[in-house]
Design a protein that fits this description.
By secondary structure, this protein is α/β, with parallel strands linked by helices. The chain is built from 5 helices and 6 strands, in the order βαβαβαβαββα.
């Protein structure tokens, strides 16, 4: 059975969207069924019937999630989907280390949400530092290869 991977991105300037699009290509090439959404409602997300969830998010302002993700995360907290307990997932977080404690805070918020919902992270969150990389899509490839390998065993 092929795993159904649903990728959700939250971005301000587009970098997380580019990484998510690249992730969708890599995971599809690995033989997984992939659905990628830049904006999705709570009901739309549940209807996608994910086997695996991958959030790709940037961090904004004072360590917040992008505005495009905030309504979805709020809805998931208000109405925790029972069928997600034990769901497999991952997080790719984009940030800038010069922001100190707020570095990749958006990704940490998704990890906290996963913990609240009983979602199981397959591997450590990938932190992409804008102050160190000019090509976050390429920098995500080793992590994505490991993620795909853990799903296609």
């Amino acid at each position: 059975m092929t795993m159904n991977v649903v990728i959700i991105s939250g971005t301000v300037f587009g970098a997380a969207e580019e990484v998510a699009h690249h992730a969708a290509q890599i995971l599809a090439e690995a033989g997984l069924d992939v659905t990628y959404k830049t904006r999705v409602s709570y009901s739309e997300l549940l209807a996608l019937d994910a086997d695996v969830l991958l959030f790709v998010t940037s961090t904004t302002g004072m360590g917040e999630l992008p505005e495009t993700l905030q309504p979805l995360v709020h809805a998931l907290r208000e109405q925790p989907p029972q069928q997600w307990h034990g769901l497999l997932a991952g997080v790719i977080a984009l940030g800038d280390a010069c922001y100190g404690e707020d570095f990749c805070a958006g990704g940490e918020m998704i990890r906290e949400l996963y913990a609240e919902l009983g979602v199981v992270e397959l591997q450590d969150m990938l932190r992409l530092d804008a102050s160190e990389t000019v090509n976050p899509e390429r920098d995500a490839e080793p992590w994505l290869a490991e993620f795909a390998a853990s799903l296609t065993v």
